[in-house]
Design a protein that fits this description.
5-stranded antiparallel β-sheet, 7-stranded antiparallel β-sheet
Amino acid sequence: MDPIARTKRSKILKIMGIATFMLVVGASWLAISTARYMKDVLREQFNEQQLVLARHAAQRVEANINHAIDDLVLLNSLPAIQYCDTQSYEAMLLTTLPVLNGRRIIAIRRIDRQGSQIFAASEQGIVIRNLGHVQQEPAAYLSWAEDPANKGKTMGTALYPKQGAKERSDLVFDLITPTYEEAANAAHPYPSRAYAGYIRLTLDVTHMMHDIMPPIRSGKTGYAWVIDSNGIIIYHPEKSFIGESTFEARSNKGPAISFDQINRIQREEMMRGVEGTGSYYTGWHREIVKPMEKLFAYSPVHIQGPYVNYSWSVAVAAPVQEVESIIDSVYTRQFLLQALVVSIICLGSLFVVFYERRWSSELEHEVELKTGHIQKYANELESSETKYRSLVESAEDLIFTVEPNGLIRTANLHMCRIFGINPQEMAGQSLYRFLPGKEVQEQLSCVRKALSSGRGEKTETRLALPSGNFWFNIQYIPVKGDGVEEYALAIARDITERKDIEQQLINTEKLASLGTMAAGVAHEINNPIGIMLGFCDLLLEKMDPGSMEYNDLKTVERHGLHCKSIVERLLSFARVREEYEEDCDLNANIESITSVVKHTLDMNNIELVLSLAPDLPPVRGDSTGLQQVFLNLINNAVQAMGEKGAIKIETRCGSSRKEIEAIVTDRGCGIKREYLDKIFDPFFTTKKVGEGTGLGLSVSYGIITRFGGRIECRSVTEEEAPGASGTTFEIILPASDEVK
């Protein structure tokens, strides 16, 4: 080979060598940077997967504690718990056993106002008023419970070791709520509503965590651990850590290792209830003892307003090596192949191209696999959200969110049905569209109070809705929105039936007490009146008819007989008449009494409209009593309308043929809202002095309830609805036993 050719070949070889070297360097740099990028991607995706696990675990812990709080509030409302009478042993057994058998609740204690334990329930049984030494409760519990501002609230204590436990790692904590004597039972028909101590429920936190945390597994060997807001470890696979400070436990096990990174994250984020992901260095993992980096994600456990405020943190951690081992194995083989490329340029180049494709395929497969796992968890979360949304939509309570200005954000289907609006149109509507301004202002006042205090607000209110008048127990719970925006979650439960029953019980008690008084008064007055009328008759026999003395005696006799009729009316109110209860024709009785008052109605220019349903079954009752009821209602309507108006009497079958309804409607001046709860009280009247005794409606109420029926009143005054005032009395009577 000539020198020129050799030189040319040498240059070509040098160029090829440099090109090969640059190619190898470039390929190596590209591989290293790609590996780093893919490691970062996989680390981020793996931590997001761990965050999903941490959220799920935190939600389960929150649900368990919320269930325990619900059980505590329910027990505190029971008479057997409030009074703790020794006769209530069986009732307390029946109420506490279901609570002790679930939710990891291990003890229920009732503490009196002096701090002495008067009732304790646990797995060993129930003890009431133990005569032995009584342990005094901490003064802090008593001072908190007896503060009236804490009525209806729940306080959570700090974690402490379980009494009698063999290991310090058995942790429990208490939920405490003040007890007031507000419930009524046979022994306490009139609650004092006074402070009576508190009820204390002990929750086994360690066993609750052992039910939830062990199944959580991230990667091959990853696990979950939990700390509270003070940095105390509540759960950890390393049992010696439980109950210890997270900062001291790690330092004691690995004094030569710096835990500044994980300690900073715990102080600044986890203990403050912040959610996030990160990494830290440690010296061990399960049985493996060596320095390593771990990926971990953490999610807070929030138990907040209107009961207690907790901020625990659930963390899920796994070694970085488990995540990066896949990429390390792939790139190790790649570097070996690149070394082979240096020796065999052509074959190596082809092999590298082939291997790069194979490597990309494997990497895409791994990414798809991890993405599939994440998608699976996302689908499970979406399914859970759908389930809870279905529960809200199928609830019979009104559930909606509202802003402080009255704008409705969301509402369930039941609320849309009650307000009579399409669900698609409800969002964005204002409460002012559906309710009078005064009622809206009352509700918005509760919303603003809840948002300003950060605690739930409860109210019982009567709302006039398009579908009728309802009583609701409404609870407003503050909800943090995006940024600084706030709104309230409202849950309104229909308590109309309960309110009606309460009102009927109140009226019955009033009738019973006033009936006893009326019987005594009538008895004391009746004897003197009889003597007066007897002597008056004797004197009349001695006087000449037509004389002044005779006329004076007749006047005395007339007024005496008037007093006797008043006494008889008092007696008819005071006792149940011993008359035979029969079945009667409701329409016939109405027609009979309207024929009697027809002349009076004509004299006052009052139109009578009868709309009596044909073929009504007979009702339970007697004709005399029913005629007296309708006579009282017609007379009241005439006096409310003056000299012109209309009275409509309608009869119809109820929701079934087991009930018959009679509706008496007038267009009079109406009854003010503040008087509606008093109109059936004996001697209550809005008429002028001397124009009424106040017994008509109370006697009518007694007659209807004696027949097993009920009477209800709705009224609108001229001030509330100008030009549309009036009163409607609805009488519901049971049908005769023969048609049932």
